[in-house]
Fold each of these.
Amino acid sequence: MWVLVFGGLRAFVVQAEHCGDPDVRSITDSVDAAVGWFARNQNADGTWLYRYDRDVDAAVGGYNITRHAGVTMSLEQAAARGFGNAAAVSEDGIGWAVSNLVDGPGWRAFASADSDTVSSGPSGLLTAALVYRRDRTGTDTYDDVMHDLGAFMVAMVNERGQVYAEWGVDTAAPVPELYSRYFTGEVFWALALLHRTFPDGDFGYGAAAERVARYIATERTKVEEFEPDLPDHWAAYGFSVMTSWPGYALPEEYDYYVRRQSGLQSLQIRYESQRTNSTFSYFTRGRQTLGAGLGTIGEALGHWTVVAEASPRLDEIAGPLAERTRCVAGTLMARQVGDDDVSDDDDPDAVLGAWFQFDVTQMDDQQHALSALLAALPWPATAEVG
Amino acid sequence: MNRIVAVLAVVTAVDVAQRVRQLRDRPPGERAVVAAGFLAAAVVLAAVATPLLDALDISAPNLQIGAGVVLAVYSAVALVRWDDTPALARTASGRPVPIRPLEAEPTGEATKQYDRRVGAAPAERARQNPAAASGRAFPPEPLVPLLFPIVLTPAVGVVVMAVAARNGLLVPLAASAGVAIALAWPAVDGVVGRRPVRLLSATLGVVAGAVMVVDGAFAV
């Protein structure tokens, strides 16, 4: 009976979690490879290869400005952490984004010029990239752009703390009752960063960020009908930045949300890390997820770790969160295309350093994976190696 | 894991009402050995839980989910079953020998019949295993089969390990100590070793198992 019960548990319930043993050197190598993918696959205008099919060795086409902004943000995160080759790649991406801003009443936003609406999310991610760049370079080159984007985002936050997903060009007003799963967190994060960068001005960034924080932590799940909850890595970014505001203490009423989000993301990596794509694993756990999907888990866990470490009431989950963050990094590294995985039929420039599912990769696979690897760097398992 | 749930999980996994019922005819010395053996096993299981999970690449919350499933299933089955046979009272064919109810008067023809039938069980054991009958068996009967596999079931093993991995050593050992007292103390037989108590225990076990699954799923 013991063999039956424990064997059954091992086979179907508690399969091995393949987290690897990531250390600073191996994570650094993986980050370098991801940044290398962006460097090799950047177009002359600053955009990137959007989607690539390895099976037919061809670009699939399409482009998405939210993901463009996200890639520049991730590259700026890497540059800020000392990955110097990321800075030049990011610079061209920022240049393309800044040349594609649209004007509104008292603000500018990052959007497609021919669209009837202006989405709020892309401006949030571009703002984050610009803040990272400002922190890294110490220059105010894009301060005006940041304030213009900030004014747009403040205009998109209502009194309740909800973030409108779209601005209607024809109506010259936010599209009512339209909210996005992710734009809310992206704008929240950007506003929190702007408040940290410009704490003294009367811009309204901090007040707007606090409204959004309260809405996310206490109301959004019910109001926007996310059950059990929406795993939101962008919210994790936002709250982690708020904990870096001078004198800020996380309100106790947010604890439930932080714990819930931490648990949801932890559950996901505890499950995902069991997937190996073997036949047995495929039938008992399903196929491995996208690089982007896995990356967002690591981003969330890494930033919830920052929140937990800054909040004494959440101290007991900081250690497990850091361990799960490292697990994401190890899982990502195991699934990244390395030198040994490139075959003669492959275009090395398009596959090396990338994450594929069904032989297809999309630039946000590399974006989220890169950010997740960077989020794991503060918590190496072994001694610093370089 | 909530400490109350953790303690409840260990106690219900042992299925104290059923075990006390099965041990009721054993001499106090044997029961003391069973209880001490159980506590020692719990200490070992709790101590090896975390290193074993590390070696097998299993996170503590995932084991908690697994333990919750095992506990819930075991307890659900326990709701509809009740073994009234003393642990060692079986015929040579393995068929349980009916036992005298605890509340029965030890007089009359039925009791005489019962005594004759139960009396056959030790004789059968002596015929099949003279060493056991003479007290020279190894391992001794209090350990096999009384402690293992009757008291120390897979449900106990996985629950104690899961609780230790999530809550540390103190909680599972405190719960196990309480269980050991019940196993060793004949005075509780009449109160604890009853089917209504087992129904209560099994119900709580199903609840504790479900809570463990949900709590483990959303744990960090």
Note: Chain B is about 70% helix and 0% strand.
Amino acid sequence: MNRKRLFFPALFCLSVVLLSSCSGGNGSVYRQSKALMDTYVTVTVVSPSKDKAERAVQDAFSTIERFGDLINFFSDRSELSKINRNAGIAPVKVSAPTLDVVEKSLYVARESEGAFDPTIGPEIHMWDFHKKIKPSDSDIREKLPLVDYRNVVVDKKNSTVFLKKKGMMLDLGGIAKGYGADLAVGALKRDGIRAGIVAVAGDIKTFGLKPDGSPWNVGIENPRQKNASDEIMATIRLSDEAISTSGDYQRFFILDGRRYHHLLDPKTGHPAMFCRSVSVITDKGVFTDSLATAVFILGPERGMKLLQKLGMNGVIVDAKGNIHITPGLKGKLTIEKDH
Amino acid sequence: MADRLLFLVLLIGSVAGIFIARDALPQATGVVIDVAGKPAYNFPIDVNRTVTLHGPYGKMVVEIRDRKVRMKEAHCPNLLCVKEGWISKGVIVCLPNKVVITVGGGTAGPKGVDAITR
């Protein structure tokens, strides 16, 4: 009799113990956000202890902050500003991370045949998307000769970067956040963290698995969100992969019924109009960030060809709202909403 | 006697388990306000209140009401933080004032996602 009376309470207690173990046995999830690199950064880690998690997260933040200081377009003290000030004058000696991210930006520029171009600076900085300022067509045309990645000289031996023409401006805004996410994940791993996510705004790098053994579940923002309930267009399950999204809804204004956004075609200086959003998935954030922009500029057909050539995956929402998905995402992607 | 001992062990284990589970989600029900990169305030989301902060661009007012949070007032150049409106989960950032308001533990959004690419 006593045994029967004790059976269900004991079973309940046992189930609570087992459930707690699931969340705590493989470590617990800790998350923290901080304003860095002119955006917000969220670091999520799986760790057996809060102290270890906090130390690692702070290390990740410091890593991103140091890198952000090197390539800050708006800071006179950054290495990037020094390169820009010396355009047409002299090569500038830079640190290893700056040299590396510039080299990688030129690699993506070459592979995309200039659809992504880190020398877009003179064009993009004539626009003000908050104040709805569009430069005149003649101003856009005048600056176009300054946009050409082939006029960037990287000397690996002497660790220098040189812009051949006076007035050229490197702007690494289309690649640096993804690179920062990669650096932060490297720091977390060196601190003994085996799973987590670094999200530098929407540039996300995942590694390892959640405590329950499942991949990380990342939402892709709906480019035509109408209300709070349709924020997510699709979800994707990732582990040890990065994802970035470029969209015409991030920085834009509407003028005379036309949408002007920040993803400029380096060949025309005007916003590219073939897509609403592009998400790219591969192992490194530095490539997801820059290639999301490149594919957006190229449009769905040429963009899909580029992704296939590079062996990367992607989700493209074209200008009419049609979705194009690379075959490699089969089983990983769930479409949630209209877009 | 053995049953009672087993029951006691499991009861202690289950109570301990509740605290382990709470520790796993340390920010799940709070509003954390970071100022200049450091946690400055931590409020429960279920108590209505307004919080006044001061930053490089002057006064900011954060409002917590009906388990939602918004930047009610700010004087930064673009007012993106104010335009964000009410959120019940996620992050409101005012970069010019170096303020990050994290609600319910961060970027986890609808449908139980761990992060959102945007």
Note: The radius of gyration of chain A is 23 Å.
